[in-house]
Design a protein that fits this description.
The structure holds 2 protein chains of 2 kinds.
Chain A (H helix, E strand, L loop, with lengths): L1 H6 L13 H33 L8 H16 L2 H7 L1 H8 L5 H25 L3 H9 L4 H12 L1 H19 L10 H10 L4 H29 L2
Chain B lengths: L3 E14 L2 E14 L3 E5 L6 H6 L9 E6 L2 E2 L5 H8 L2 E5 L10 H6 L8 H14 L15 H13 L5 E5 L7 H18 L2 E6 L2 H7 L2 E6 L2 E7 H6 L4 H11 L1 H9 L2 H4 L6 E8 L7 H9 L2 E12 L2 E11 L2 H13 L3 E4 L2 H6 L1
Parallel strand pairs in B: 3-8, 3-9, 6-7, 7-8
Antiparallel strand pairs in B: 1-2, 1-4, 4-5, 9-10, 11-13, 11-14, 12-13
The chains are: A mainly alpha, B alpha/beta.
Main location (chain A): membrane
GO biological process, one term (chain A): D-methionine transmembrane transport
Protein name (chain A): Amino acid ABC transporter permease protein
């Protein structure tokens, strides 16, 4: 194992333990997973509501659409690093703490949800309006059309935008270090970059890339399965 | 007295979008009787699609009354409307099948949750049989030809046993042979199931093949309507005449006819005319009568005889030669026998 010690001299001593590599990986996975689930559910709901309440939507409702649309735009306009900072009081109220990986989750969900909602909206809008009209002509309810037509016919597109969103969420977790969230991004900057330990930066990068490729691979696999 | 299943009264649809207002349907009255195959023909943008969508309220009229199967559609709650829609099937130009589902699942789609699994399976099998696709149950729409996709669309529309079928340009994306086969299928459904069909199209050929009644639409209005034979025999509006001419390719025929020597060397007393006749008038040997009784020679340059609902519908372009007095008597005879005579000016045709 001498080549590891040769090429990654600074990584070996901090592999395990507090603020170590293994912990950073766990923190990144934790933040990504919880964000994906929470923002996934919220974004899906908002995205569906955007489609349904839009003009010519099944449940056209101009005020609801207007409010949702503007909220999504506003949250998407805020740079994530600033969102982390301004949300601190809110975060404390929700999860009881302003620092750590769990504290990073609140701004992560707040940042990813509007992004995902817009992606869901666009994905569902690719469903042929003719098919929606056909379902309407058969007397299917708006709820039935949402689940049995929109989500079903738009599934491969939904998988595609979900992969895109998870990868972008992994990117955002790298900034979680700003509120003590830890993770691989924090490892690369706080340890690797600031102590001139380039090997640590590279290791953090490799693990993030592995994670991204894994998500992409699984997504492609699922997308292929749903496409006919 | 035929039972009316669809009654539209003064139905008006006005689209208002940012100051611009489009009057898609302009105070239309329409009555469709049980068992009709009612053709609504018009160019695209005439308002046909919007009009038929007011039948199942996919398009709510701006004003007017819609009664379908005795039900005032505009008085229904959303839930009641959904139930009522199951009695009105609809098929589309682009089929609108779900690509993520198999053929069988597409047909079963409107039945899920309403019937037991076994009942649905039986119904789907019956419908696949009916449209001639029993062997493609497990295929996906992407694997089917256009004609097969429309058969699936028809089977799906029939799944909830509707009494009315609305066909929105259902054959317009298909080649002529497939179109004809789909129209035959619709006609057999009309006969077998007593299905009332409202067929909108821009192809008079389709109307001619299966409809018993026809309405011509232009700029949101029905400008002419009646029984198929009546419309073909005595069209009143220019647009109707144009549509009828598309079924006999008269324009193309006229151009080649006027280029013929028989027309180029027309004598001053010769008359180049178009004769149109329907039904009984054709029972008599027309051309022979003209010669025997009136001493007029008829030179047939173009002829087209079609059978509409079992009745011949003929169009002839002929040169009539004879003494002026004989020709006058000939025209009177033709008129008395319900043969429409239209003089043709070769120069006008050549220049058009």
């Amino acid at each position: 194992m001498s080549w590891i010690e040769k090429f990654f001299p600074n990584v070996v001593p901090i592999w395990t333990g507090d603020n170590g590599v293994v912990q950073a990986i766990q923190q990144t996975l934790y933040m990504t997973l919880v964000t994906a689930v929470c923002a996934g559910i919220l974004g899906l709901i908002i995205g569906i509501l955007l489609v349904l309440t839009d003009q010519h939507g099944l449940l056209q409702n101009d005020p609801v659409y207007f409010i949702l649309d503007k909220l999504v735009n506003i949250f998407r306009a805020v740079p994530f690093i600033i969102l982390l900072a301004v949300m601190t009081p809110f975060t404390r109220a929700i999860v009881g703490t302003g620092i750590g990986p769990t504290a990073a989750l609140v701004p992560l969900v707040a940042g990813v949800t509007p992004f995902y909602a817009r992606q869901v909206q666009n994905a569902l809008l690719t469903v042929d309006p003719g098919v929606i009209e056909a379902a309407e002509s058969m007397g299917i309810s708006p709820l039935g059309i949402t689940f049995r037509v929109y989500l079903r016919e738009g599934l491969s597109e939904l998988i595609r935008v979900s992969v895109l969103t998870i990868i972008s969420a992994i990117g955002l977790t790298a900034m979680a270090g700003a509120v003590g969230g830890g993770g691989l991004g924090n490892l690369a900057i706080a340890v690797g970059y600031q102590r001139y330990q380039n090997d640590v930066v590279w290791v953090a990068l490799i693990f993030i890339l592995v994670l991204v490729f894994l998500v992409q691979f699984i997504g492609d696999l699922l997308a292929r399965k749903t496409h006919h | 007295m035929a039972e009316s299943v669809i009654t539209l009264k003064q139905v008006d649809v006005n689209f208002v979008e940012k100051k611009r207002s489009v009057h898609a349907v302009d105070h239309v009255d329409l009555t469709v009787n049980r068992g009709d195959i009612y053709g609504i023909v018009g160019y695209s943008g005439a308002g046909k699609s919007t009009l038929v969508r007011t039948i199942n309220l996919l398009q709510r009229p701006t004003s007017g009354a819609v009664t379908v199967l005795g039900q005032d559609m505009l008085a229904l709650t959303p839930k009641q409307l959904r139930l009522e829609r199951r009695r009105i099937g609809m098929i589309f130009q682009h089929f609108n099948l779900m690509n993520s589902r198999t053929i069988a699942d597409n047909i079963a789609f409107p039945l899920r949750g309403r019937k037991s699994k076994a009942e649905i399976a039986k119904k789907v099998a019956d419908l696949l049989d009916l449209v001639g696709l029993a062997d493609r149950a497990g295929a996906y729409p992407a694997e089917l030809s256009g004609g097969q996709k429309q058969r699936v669309g028809i089977a799906r529309a029939l799944a909830s046993d509707p009494e009315i079928l609305i066909s929105d340009e259902a054959t317009s994306a298909l080649d002529p042979k497939t179109t004809s086969a789909i129209l035959d299928l619709l006609q057999s459904l009309n006969e077998k199931l007593g299905l009332t069909i409202v067929l909108i199209t821009h192809e008079m050929e389709a109307v001619k093949q299966i409809c018993n009644r026809v309405a011509v639409m232009d700029e949101g209005r029905i400008i002419e309507r009646g029984d198929l034979l009546q419309i073909f025999a005595q069209p009143q509006q220019q647009l109707t005449k144009d549509f009828i001419d598309t079924t006999i390719q008269l324009d193309a025929a006229l151009k080649s006819v006027v280029a013929q020597p028989a027309v180029q060397n027309l004598k001053p007393t010769d008359r180049l005319v178009r004769l149109t006749y329907v039904g009984d008038s054709t029972d008599q040997p027309l051309v022979a009568t003209l010669y025997k009784e009136y001493n007029v020679v008829a030179n047939i340059l173009f002829g087209d005889i079609q059978i509409l609902q079992g009745t011949p519908f003929g169009n002839l372009i002929i040169v009539l030669s004879g003494a002026p007095a004989d020709l006058d008597r000939t025209f009177a005879y033709l008129k008395a026998n319900d043969v429409t005579v239209q003089p043709i000016d070769p120069k006008e045709v050549a220049n058009s």
